[in-house]
Design a protein that fits this description.
It is a single chain. It contains three helices and no strands. The protein is mostly helical. It has a single domain, classed as Apolipoprotein (Four Helix Bundle (Hemerythrin (Met), subunit A), Up-down Bundle), CATH 1.20.120.20. Helix 1 runs antiparallel to helix 2. The termini are far apart.
């Protein structure tokens, strides 16, 4: 392979990787939007539950705030963890781009055999990072959904329990 052809190939690889990095940036942005939407839905449910509490004496607002506060702390931690994973992934991808650019700068000193080994290693590391980040983000988001569902189920149980107790008290008062 002629030296100029080799440089052109490497420049094409770099351009392709830069495009990939833009796509990764878009994925990160979309994940942030998903987290924001999830947070908005969670806050909407929280407001709705708080309003239900205001109409009912079955569960004290203080109990609700404590329960929600715990969940929000855990969920906020998970959101931060997802954002950190995505930022690290993006930095690693930028690092690969820098390695590719440094290969281009080596020019004549770079042997094709070494180049192929470097590209194979980069591809292998990239696939591993992509798989890990995808699994990690999916896992964290699923945990957040499950915890929100558990919170709502727990709240409903408490509310139903308090409503039953309240009915028993009213029944005893009416019978006496």
């Amino acid at each position: 392979m002629e030296n100029q052809e080799f440089k052109n190939l490497l420049q094409n690889i770099i351009a392709s990787y830069e495009a990939r990095l833009k796509i990764v940036g878009g994925i990160i942005e979309n994940t942030h939007k998903t987290l924001d939407e999830f947070r908005a839905k969670r806050e909407e449910v929280s407001v709705s539950l708080r309003e239900a509490l205001a109409k009912s004496a079955n569960l004290r607002k203080k109990d609700f705030d404590g329960m929600i506060g715990e969940i929000l702390n855990v969920q906020t931690g998970k959101e931060e963890n997802i954002k950190k994973m995505l930022a690290e992934f993006h930095q690693e991808e930028e690092g690969v781009l820098m390695k590719l650019k440094s290969l281009l700068e080596q020019g004549d000193n770079l042997k094709i055999k070494n180049f192929k080994k470097i590209l194979a290693r980069i591809k292998q590391e990239q696939e591993k990072r992509s798989k890990n980040i995808s699994q990690g983000v999916d896992s964290e988001i699923e945990k957040m959904r499950q915890e929100l569902g558990e919170m709502l189920a727990h709240f409903k149980e408490e509310r139903d329990k308090m409503a039953l107790e309240w009915q028993n008290v009213l029944s005893k008062i009416n019978n006496h």
